[in-house]
Amino acid sequence: MNLRTARILTCIYLALALFFVTWPGLKPFARIEPLVLGLPFSMAWIAGWIAGSVFVLYGLDRVERRHRDGEGS
Amino acid sequence: MQQWVVVSIIIGAYLALTLTIGLLAGRKSSDSVTGYVAADRSFGLLVMYFVTGASVFSAFAFLGGPGWAYSRGAAAFYILAYGALGMAPFYWVGPRAAALGRKFGYVTQAQLVVGRFPSRTLSALIAGLSLIAFVPYITLQMRGAGIVIEAVTDGNIPIWLGSLVAYGIVIFYVLASGAMAVGWTNTFQGVFMVIIAWSLGLYLPYRLYGGVTPMFEQIMDVRPEMLVPPGLTATGEPWSWGAYSTFIIVSAVGLMMWPHLFMKAFTAKDDDTMRRTVILFPTFQLFLIPVFLIGFSGILFTGGPSSADFILPYMILETGLPAVVVGLFCAGALSASMSTGDALLHASASVVVEDGITQFVKLDDRQRRLLMRILVLLTGATAYYFAQDAESSLVLLLATAYGVISQLAPPVVSAMYWKRATTSGVLAGLLAGTATSVFFYFNPDLRPFDMHEGVLGLIVHVPVLISVSLMTPIQNEKHLAGFFS
Hints:
The complex is a heterodimer of chains A (about 70) and B (about 475).
Chain A: H1 3-21, H2 41-72
Helix pairs in contact in A: 1-2
Chain B: H1 3-26, H2 33-38, H3 45-56, H4 59-72, H5 77-87, H6 90-104, H7 109-116, H8 120-152, H9 159-177, H10 179-209, H11 212-222, H12 241-255, H13 259-262, H14 264-267, H15 271-285, H16 288-297, H17 311-318, H18 323-356, H19 365-387, H20 394-405, H21 409-417, H22 423-442, H23 453-471, H24 477-484
């Protein structure tokens, strides 16, 4: 993946995360059931977006690093 | 031996250990302003990770978080939502700020803004705004420390004494060692906090309800409104979507604008360390889950503390835990308070001296260090004074401070990313945004859609910054080249 695509995808993920944890994106998911790992659904939903950002940022970092290494050599 | 005596001994041992780590760390730092403010730019990944996490999670998260889950239910989820969003852009912003910091010798974010937009007024304005936001933040940390100590010692150590002793120690090691002490003590305190939060957050639901799932099933039967965003207000009415959403936005925008967090860009050893901290940061954020579980476990519990902020110590005392566990918990909560409080005190003094005073008076290195130490004492004393009779909720104290600090985001971002921005534009935007947010802070009934005053400030701030910048002449090429090469 090239750098530009990775950056755009990361920004899209962050924009979606913001949309889905605030009004109006959160509204359809603002419910209790089903419980996920014992947590109310909305809580698990928000935690899921946060946990997902670790993977997205990690992926971005791999691409960014490859790009920086390429520049250096 | 009485329980509170055992608890006091554990707290005493913990405080002594923190002090030792703080003082030992200082011996490695060089005797210069860069050493005191930016720790000789030498923090590695482990220290950076815990410094950032421990400074973000303060008494606010540790006591205010459970307090909100207990009294306002799902409203507390806003705290869970904003952190990762606020931190992520720092993957790019951080290294860029660091590069400019190394190139021009910046140690504070106001120096970065003023480096790009030369204006002493702007510098003093940023220093002033930071200080205004810092005092309630430090106040809530001190009060948090006092609350915990008073609650677990059955009132034998009152708030005034507990906060005095805990912050006496913080001020002592910040004065002696500067940023190095803050780094190493936060690593220690961060590890401690994570362990305490997870063990307690899982233990309480098991002990009282037989597990996390049964706990939420029972709450769902009795108080279902507590579990659905946007939750409740302090008086138990349904909270508005407008307020819930804008609390997330203002906190996400403001998060990295806190000088004590932004300055981490100047203390990082290298850019990779900083980027990895950003990537790992959401893992720290998830530690709010057990913290909320502690608060939720109190909802169906008979009786309740006098104020929601006391729910954590209340639950621990009411469920008959052994004294040693109570003592360890107390040390964890103190970690949360002190690890943020020290960073705040340190940053507020650095900002006022570097960005406020030295803009108008010429001082040498030694005088600046001395002045910073005097200011650490003065700021500490001011916050201590307010901590004695604050009545407002810990979360609301911080949310208010966020309204002020989020106004620093447009100047910082345009300094690094927008060539066409001008000094007049940035000044006009900052003044208009701050004035708007102050106006709505004092007139809460006039807020459209119940939005947070900081977001309303930004809605005015950004267009003013852009339009005034476009109306004034662009900065000269040579000056811009230094920032955008």
